[in-house]
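Co-fold these.
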Amino acid sequence: MSLVRAERLVKTYRTGEVKVPAVRGVDFAIEAGSLVAFVGPSGSGKTTLLNMIGCLDHPTSGTLTVLDTDVGALDRRAAAEFRGWHMGFIFQDFNLIPVLSAYENIEYPLIMVQAWPERKRHEQVLRLLEAVGMAGQAGKRPDQLSGGQKQRVAVARALATNAKLVLADEPTANLDHDNAYQVLALMKRMRDEIGTTFVFSTHDPKIMSEAEVLFTLEDGALREAQAARKPEAAHA
Amino acid sequence: MLNVLKIALRNLARFGRRTLLTASLITLGVVAVLLFIGIAGSFKALMIGQFTDGVLGHLEVHRKGYVASIDNLPLNLNMQPALVQKVEQVLDKMPQIDAYSERLKFGAMFSNFNETTSIRVNGVDPGKEAATIPLMPGRIIEGSKQPPPLKTGEILVPKLLAQGLKVKVGDTVVLVATNLQGSVNAKTFVVRGVLDSASGPSGRDGYVDIRDARSLLRITQPEVNEIAIRLKNPAQLDQVDATLKRELGAIVNQQGKPMLEVHTWADLSPFASIVRMIDLLTLFIKIMLVTIVLVSVLNVMIMAVYERVREIGMISAMGTPPTRILMLFLTEGLLLGVGGTALGTVLSLAVVWALNLRKIVFNFGMQTGLVLSPSVSASDVLAVVAMVIVMALLASLQPAWKASRMDPVRALGHV
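Predicted complex below.
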């Protein structure tokens, strides 16, 4: 059973009287434990697709199933709960909370979303800090960290709730190449160690080559599905 | 909740200057209101004290219709001895009453043998009057203040009259009065003292012993036309007023109509409107405080939401329930209110304490040397604190609601 399955997925935005199609009848499936990239130029529909998979946006038509749940049918509150319990997010701009330390940023979803007990929370945060190589920077606030360090903290935060699926929209766009590869390597390692599925979007050819499955989008349509490293993981 | 509080505190600290400015505004507002309440309350208490302890008493009992024609000081509305006895029985049973004084008020002509003028006179039992109106002996500005303030054959003359007729302590004067039957009688008195004027009705009356008053008016029975009452605790005024109206209202004439009327000092004194004006001013100051809190907290919270749109989008995207986002912003508003109020309360109490140490003296009307002694009651503090905190919460509600309803996709794309 696929972790994510989309059938004839359509998303159309309305600007006044004008309808703007962002995603046009896309079908794809993502297997658990894979490292998947949606690639394509700006405006190709990558972010829209990620937003729909992440229950941040609703499809206009078609079906989208994530973890056996028809996420298109979830209302706002249910979608928030679903995200909180099953998904993690990594953003292009890191989006760490500036008033919290690295430790507290990772701890944040465990307090505000899942309400873990303190001791268990502490163990989880320390484990993740260690895993992303930030154990020595736990007390630093985002403005005291480099871009790469911030994104490491963001990866740890996305994994804090033991999410089965982590969505990353252009996670390396604000990083230099060294840091971009390190972050991707970290995502792979986390996938290998804890089996989390990572889905990210990018338009950087060097970064997309690191993905195991590539979905190429063009004008909202899926042009190509390519199994780069782990062909059994994807079925277009 | 503790974690929400911690994050809210840090968010406030993040925008330190703005937080400080808003909290200072709230502090300033709280200080202004509490000081106004304290000082106005002191002024009000002093003013009321002048009326109740210097002239009127807290309550007065008369025959029905007497107050309506009090300018004429009618003698046909006197309370007869049997009626007086009934009233006294009611008063003696009430533990809230500290003292009462029967009065026989009348109009007379006052002569120093060269000049004559009119005078309003209170015939009183000096001991009972001093117990009921404790500031009265203090109004004696010339002559002996040694108790009793008055003996038979003596008169206390109001200051303006003494000045006008050039009457001094020890002089002999004559009072000429017309009794109920129209018979005119005169009696000589020795001036025992000169009374300073007091604000309000009866503040320029003369005083004689009630036995002299009856003798002058040729009243053989112990009739009175006014009973002034002093309460142990003035705060019980409304309660005692209601009880007295009920108890004395049961005393009816042959037609079954009530024979007596009860009035509070506020009913009898035109200066009660000043007291009401002070209350009104206090209300307006409170409304201003509410406005300050509402506008400043609303402003700062709107800015907080506007500046943190992407952050709100991020916490919403990661699955933070909308109610928790609402709580976070409400907590920030609440903390602003609580912080500003706490500081304001401490400052206000410190200033009130300092003012009491300083003992500021002021004059009011004819009274001089009144000492300002502001005080802020716990109920006043609690009311202001509650008002500010509720307003801070209300002001945060709209921005917090907006934050909790924000679409994460739009918020994350906000520039």
